[in-house]
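Blinded run. Sample ID left blank on purpose so nobody reads anything into the name before looking at the predicted structure. Input follows.
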Amino acid sequence: MIEIMKKDSLKKGLSGEQAAKSKAEFGTNELAKKQPESLLSMFIGAFDDIWIKVLCFALLLKIVLAVLGVIFPAISGGNDAIEIVSIILAIALATGFSTLSEYRNSSRSEALQEEYSKTFAKVMRDGKLLKISTNEIVKGDTILIQAGDKVPVDGLIFDGHVKVSQAALNGESRDESKVAADNMDDAESTDYSSENKVFMGSVVTSGEAYMVATVIGDASELGKINKALTDNEEEERKDTSSLKLEVVAAGIGKLGVSAAAIAGVLQVVLNIVRANEAITPVFVILLVAEAVMLMASIVIMAVPEGLPMMNSLVQSMNTESMYKKNILVSHKAAFSDSAYMNLLFSDKTGTITEGNLSLVEFITGDGEIADKLLNADFIDAITVNNLAKVSEGKAIGSNNMDRALLSYALANNAKPDEDEIEKRVKENNGFDSEKKCAIVELNDGVVYWKGATEQIIDDITHYETADGSIKEFTAADKEKVIKQMEAQAKRTMKLLSVAKIADGKKILLAVLCLRDNVRKDAIETVEVLNGAGIQVVMVTGDAEETATAIAKEAGILVDEKNDVVLTHEELEKMSDEELKKELPHLKVVSRAKPLDKKRLVSIAQQLDNVCGMTGDGVNDAPALKQADIGFAMGDGTAVAQEAGDVVILNNSLTSIKDCVLNSRTMAKSVGKFLIFQLTVNISTLLMNILAPILGWTEPFSIVQILWINLIMDTLAAMAFGGEPILNRYMDEKPAKRTDNILTGYIKSAIGVSAIFITLGSILILENVGGITSFVMPEGCKNPELYEKTFMFAFFIYSIILNSLNTRSERFNLFEHISENKNFGLVMGAIFVLQTIIIQIGGPVFDTTMLSVKALVVSMLLAVLIIPVDMIRKLIVRK
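Blinded prediction complete.
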């Protein structure tokens, strides 16, 4: 049975009582929100990091050893409490930085969503038109929608007519006409093409209508998509940064275990061989217990405790600086993946282009191109025959063409008076889609016409020149105009003719050339991204000709012979294997549908690409969520922003470039830190392995090891965390997802420096060439302690000077050093403290005061690490 609409009743809207009843029965229009994560939950989540797990294992192992030390004092390390506190501090700092950074960004994201959801609608209640929050709309409410409004619910139009853009829902750029329904048949319809139903998230581009809310909140089409994304708990692809660091963790774990096993075996074997007492079972058990303790200590020593804190610190600092550049980072791990991104699927409108039609050129009746047209008739024609309105000096309402025409007039000092125009107009027919024109008749008999050129060009008798004179329109003129129109169409211009009909003459004022201009910064940014090894693919709903022309202008489509341009139909016909072959050369996808984006991301990821995706509509959300880095636009839908990893607040492609550059800087900082820290780790491990072979007692005291750990963990993280952003990083190709973060360059840097420091320490402790004797004062009371202190000084000074080698891959060790003030302060402080520790820290650090000669020689020996690394750089030539 067809339910007839009671339009008179609907026009009055619900009464307060009816609205309350509807709210109780069906709820309100508020969409489901993802439950915000608490600070505690974020803190617990931080322990999912592989390095935090490694530290927790090290902490557990240390606690076990401490307990055994209490039970069996003979194998006690004596410093267990200090080491336990040290590891706990490393865990606390790393998880603390990570949690606070994530919480701050989450709060900003929530504030952005809150601001976005503060929209209002014009609702009839008790016969009065009220402005209420869209969240408070109930089923059955009557809503007035006008040009520029966002449709707040799914519902039926019962009075008036409108044109709506449903691009946010279905990606289609064309406007849909919606007219009044006579019955409620389509109340529950989900068909976007329904001529009576409008959907939440659509934007009214022209017209005015009353609608009744039939489907609200999560039951609406937009609500369903939002809820599906909110509830989606499917396993996500692991981010590239974590993947690479897990490989490093596994490698360091193997290294630590191998070194521990070698040291443990040597400890037992050499002590048995060198024993001066009877070898009894008790002696062997104690020896094995000591070896096990040593092995456990070496495994713990191998763990780079500062890496998680370094990673968290750098991420926190970068996401904070990004916010100041109109970039809100929602997921730090995905943001880190920007460093490895090699494929970017980008929207056209608003990202590559400005997102607004502009009136850029004019074809006059003689077939010439004019950059500007300002004669009185023309300005009058485009302001009078125009449904857009002026608000605060800007054109609003109507459609994008009307707004472009009015914006041009306003930019050229025209001051249209709406009241005056209304008095002059006899009849305004508006745009007729059948006749493809809009006509305004004035009281004085003049008619202004605008529309598709083919509808009037055959009837044109005259044309107006740029200076306002009238000339006859000849066949030759017509031919010139048509040729120019064809040329302009190839340049992606939308063409619209404006004519004046008066005194029996049909006068062509101009053929207008409108275009959504390519953003000035987009051309340069595409070039930078291409130079950075990032393939930019433009995915748009536009026709192939328009998309191709825009891609050429933006620098995306360069080599027409090899570059691939696909339409939705061509893409749909391709098998996955066929698409995989074409993907490396793909540059443009035209007439794209929402699912095309998701498929492109999926295929790209199967080929181990790290891909980014931009989007602003609800229809983009699945692809944004699946991409390695989802770039949601700042003026996009809340659903898209929730699905994305990064929100580009100013919609600019340049901001995406900034993301990549910052992320690459972050990756470089992590690489530098790994060189610095693993050099110290491996040097320390080598020293502990060599000690029993060369018959040394432990080369470092416990407090010295803690000092070394403090230098290479916390202090190094602070030093390398503020490395400057260098544009030259955009000249490099991104590392592949499967590449080891420990590149050949990093491995050579670690290996050469670790070997140099170890050999230097051996040279001192073994007194090779009499080096130790040379610096030792006569009558030294404790020669063994003196040579150990001398070695300790060399070891630390070498670490400090190696930091200069580490922070620059070039031969100028001081380049951009002033841009990282923390580096100079931290390394300078370590140098001063080390010298003080040596001279006066004896009782605590197990050192003795060195002579000035010994200090200078230790520094000179340490300085040699710089030329040694220079030679390495020359050979490796990364």
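Unblinding after everyone has recorded impressions. The mean pLDDT is 83.
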